[in-house]
Amino acid sequence: MSDSDMSSQDTRAPLSPAVFHLLLALAQQNLHGYALMQAVGEQSGGRLRLRTGSLYRHLAALIDEGLIAEAPRRRKVEDPRRGTDYRLTASGRRVLDEERCYLAEVLTALESLGPGLRKDLA
Amino acid sequence: MTGQRRTLAQHAYRLVLRAAYPEWFRARFGAAMCETFGHEHGAARAQGTLAVATLWLATLAQAAWFGTAARVAGAAATVVPDRTPSRGGPSAWVRDAWGDGRYAVRMLRRSPVFAVTAIASLAIGLGAFSMIVAVADALFLQAGPGVRHGHRLVDIARSTNGVGDSPLSYTMFEAVRRQSRTAAVAAANRGAVPLSFDAGHDVARVYGRPVSANYFDVVGARPALGRFFRGEEDVALSPRPVVVVSHAFWRRSLRGEARALDRPYRLNGTLVDIVGVAEAGFEGTTLLGTDVWVPMALTGVLRGVPLTAATLDEQWGWHDARGIGRLADGVSREAAQAELSAIVATLRTADPSIPASRTITVDAGGRLPPRARPLFARFVALITVLAGGLLAVACTNVAGMLLARASTRRHEIAMRLSLGASRWRLVRQLLLETLTLFALAGLVAVAVVWWLTGMLPRLMPSNLPIPMTFDVIVSYRTLLVAAGVVTASGILCGLAPARYALAADLVPMFAGRSATEGRPRLRLRHAMVVAQVALSLAMAITAGLLVRTLHAAAHVDLGFRLEDVTLVSLDTSMVEPTAAASSSLIGRLEEQLRAIGGVRAVGVGRTVPLRGDSSSLGPVRTASAQAGAPAVASVDWDVVSPGFFESVGLPVLVGRGFTGSDRQGQPAVAVVNETFARRVWGEGQAVGRQLWHTDVETNAEQVLTVVGVVHDARYRYVSEPARPMVYRPLAQVPQSRVHFYLWSTPGRQVAADARQAIARVEPRLPVVRIESFEDAALVSLLPQRFAAWAAGAVGGIGALLAALGLYGVIAFVVAQRTREIAVRIALGASRRRVRAMVLRQAARIGAAGTAGGLVLAWGLGRLVQQVGLLIGVSPADPLTFAALVAATAVVVALASDVPARRAAGTDPAAALRAQ
Predict the structure, then answer these.
(1) How many CB atoms lie within 10 A of CB B301?
(2) What is the rounded distance in angstroms from the CA atom of residue B607 to the CA atom of residue B601?
(3) What ipTM was predicted for this assembly?
(4) Buried b (16+ CB within 10 A) or exposed e, B847-876
(5) CB pairs under 8 A between A and B
(6) Is the pTM value of this prediction over 0.90?
(7) Going by fewer Cβ within 10 Å, which terminus of chain A is more open, N or C?
């Protein structure tokens, strides 16, 4: 994967799995780096595993695209080591919504294949 | 508070970040990434070591990849970082160096042909050099596979007044084994004994090594299967002796089956049990391989000799056993020497039959026997010089290429200088580029050495008299030396181009070219090619001299007749323990062997010539010298039968050889060789003179009457001129380990008949070895063969590199002078003249290189001669020199012909337009 992939192509539907899960996790609540990493792992059922390096590579690209941003710090929280929290921006929500529509279309197309094939696919 | 402190892993990760990611990225995410990694690492630790290792691997890989991506992305978005010196302490320096290093890699990737050529030629030079270092390391510093803490092992031998390297006696070994507190002492045969191994279906020749029961403990070997010897198995007779086999033998002959240990085998006809298999690779502490280890005390049993306490000591002597000691913690070799000497002194006091001169010597341990070490060291030094020469050729070659490249970068460098870059910074960058090149070549070289060392066992000559195990393991020492050589040669080669890139003025550089600017650089390039031609020629001549040596050695006058002589080695003490009975047995054997049809003469001797062996009976002085006067310097001895001189073709020049009447009870007689006679009595008459001989065993002095002078013969090595030699009659100095020389009619194979004849005389007496005298002597030429091969390879590759270098320089000169050549052609110069002009220039370089090469070759030849590798060839052999000078001329002509043709083919109109 070349470094140009880090930018706009990733943010148009269909999203890359990593970007999709990152946006999805942040749509539920603001999270710091490690929590985000865990959330992606849980959402994907352990199929997608981000390391620190790949996580921040995506975060850097998504911040540059304006899809996510740093959330204001909650200093009073019990763990002072947590570092920066990230939140989904308005355009981030929009991209996620586009992805939802796209996935819905894909699902509809799949449904139209009838129960037999659905069973095969399952 | 502890929660805020960084863990070790986080510190490490920070270093990774600093190394891999650009500053802007770290400023934005560095702290957060460190935190996240801390959590990730904590989670991985909870899962175990494997998870942590996986995490680090993934992290490093990602850092390398994403960090570079971030750098490229950042560089694309911002201004190209300034290459002028930045201030700000060591971290800034490291950052600059890192940047320079990456720049260097980019520059190399931009000119792949140059990079590949340079790396290939450097890798050859560095590879050859590292290979020699690896071999030297394996020979002198490594203890061999499976041996643990080899640096604490010592060689222990019996000596006479502190000099010598003789087998330990059983009494001596037992005394030091029991009493020593400074070292754990074991015993092992230095040589391997050929044995027959019967696995039920077929009989194989194997090499066995008698060892004491504690041998494996002392050297630190471990069993792969089963066990090693128990203490009692080395002293008591057992109806079923036990043996241990090597891993290679187990795999090869026993198909690597664990069940193989449950079956009985016959070793030299005796039923034995295999109780263990040594770990893979372990074949003892020396270079001589081993298939089967036999307990010392049972070797007689294997030969069908009943073991008694009386024969035990004799067998040990026969078996060539030396002590191997493992020094206790913190004990020096000197301390162990002092303690063992004291033990032997006590032994002498207790037993008056032990001569007062008997001592024990503790030498540093090693795979080579102590006496052979200086010889090997000289040989390795010579090969190192050859490999160093190849490396020098490769380096000058690459330096020449770098110099040519420096010229193409004048603009870049001038631009930077004018923009205020410091010269130091530019030198550093150019040096770093060269070092990058050398480092890459070094990696290739180490990989090649790794591969070659794996191949080495297969490259061993197959006709060695004994199996060799020479596993070279590339150690950290080799890697350190290789790294040092890479760095040193890289800096040396990088300095010249760096200096020339920087020395010139800015103005002519910007002008693009100048008539004077190129001269010094070109002169340097010329000098480099001259050096290459000189070095390669010197190497090629050295190789030539060695090849001539091999040729001459086949015709050198050894003094002996090697052809049609069969050597039969026996040890009569195995059946006749007393000297008198032994002598009579030898006499009967001689008689029977002489009766074989086609055998012209039979002789008996104690030392096999040309194997590097020598034996000493003690010092001699002439009768005229006062008692206690210095002995005639180092005399070699042999003890021979009356038929010896005839059987090996050694003519008696004056007086007589030995006869049957030279027996015990008759006057003690000796025969000397020409060198002895000349050195002691000059041109005077030798026969009838007397010699005073101090017996090394009894320390008693004895008068010998010289009865004859024989022709000189080369006894120790083919390369060594004859040494003073004294022969004594076998009947007066009884021996039990003897070699029979059977001179037969040409083409007559006597081995089978000899075996039968021996069996007729004494069926219990096994033949130790039967071989032709030629085969036995052949081994002594191995160093020459190897050196010729090495020098030939170095000379050949060197010549190829020199030809490439010459081609490069001439092509470069032609390219530089295209305009001039075009003008000449346009003004009517014939193409033939242009071609001749270019060839003349090449010839000048070639002639200078040849002159240098001749001087160098002469020096190198002297060195080779001093190492003792030249036989019957002068170090200034005119034929070799002339042939290789002619070959150099051909190479120079071939290398310069292509550019010369190109110059002659210049189209003046096109060339001038292009300029």
Answers:
(1) 20
(2) 18
(3) 0.81
(4) ebbbebbbebbeebbebbbebbbbbbbebe
(5) 68
(6) no
(7) C
